[in-house]
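FYI - complex with GEK, inputs then prediction.
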Amino acid sequence: MSRSEGRDSLYAHPRDSIDSFVFDERVAAVFSDMISRSVPGYASIIGMIGLLAERHASPGSRLYDLGCSLGAATVSMGKAIGGRDCRLVAVDNAEAMLARARQQFDKHGLDKVESLCADIRDVEIRDASVVVLNFTLQFLPLEQRLPLLRGIRQGMRRDGVLILSEKIAGADAEEDALLVELHHAFKRANGYSDLEISQKRTALEEVLVPETIAVHRQRLQEAGFGRVDLWFQCFNFVSFIARP
Ligand code: GEK
């Protein structure tokens, strides 16, 4: 097993104090395992991002993967569009993640991916047919989410799509409690202990701020997306397709 395929046991032992979650080398080394055991439907979403890219990637356009981590969505899009005349742009501000993403691009023969170690708030989106925010917006401070979405909308072709996947909050306390309970059951079924679940939750508390589906829809519309459709939901994980 290579280091990029390690098993996630980062929160398996009791810690005296729990620092906020960061995307460092230790996380990057186990990220594949962590995300697939933590996000229900992750593999399906990655697969469908390829399918959506295949439908929407127009000649000469750019396809962006913002917060690409190990590049799974970029690889899925790259395979789906084959030799089409498009540019793939993969962005992450964690060098540990991007170094591994570059290895994946090489492994899959995607030699034309432009990989940028940058903050997604500083990247100008231009001539985009597909923009992917796969579980990344949730890490931005709330007030910075609308400006980012506006920039994406402005840099998008008329027939382009934004694929926005997020962990969400329930519409009310009761729904939220149910979704969280089901998500924790999913993690337990995937081998995480109660201690791991609870310590990870504490680490993410101020770092990952989920919002309701209604808030996402409203903000996407405010950013200029005329059409917003929910195409995936499993427990508190959703994905939208937003179009101009
Ligand atoms: C996947 N999309 O596998 N600028 C750039 N990158 C950022 C920023 C920022 N401001 N904030 C966070 N990131 C991936 C999964 S993970 C989701 C995305 C998760 C990056 C961060 O470094 C990390 O790699 C990624 O966004 C979020 O399809 O871990 O829940």
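The two ends are 43 Å apart (CA to CA). The first strand starts at residue 62 and ends at 66.
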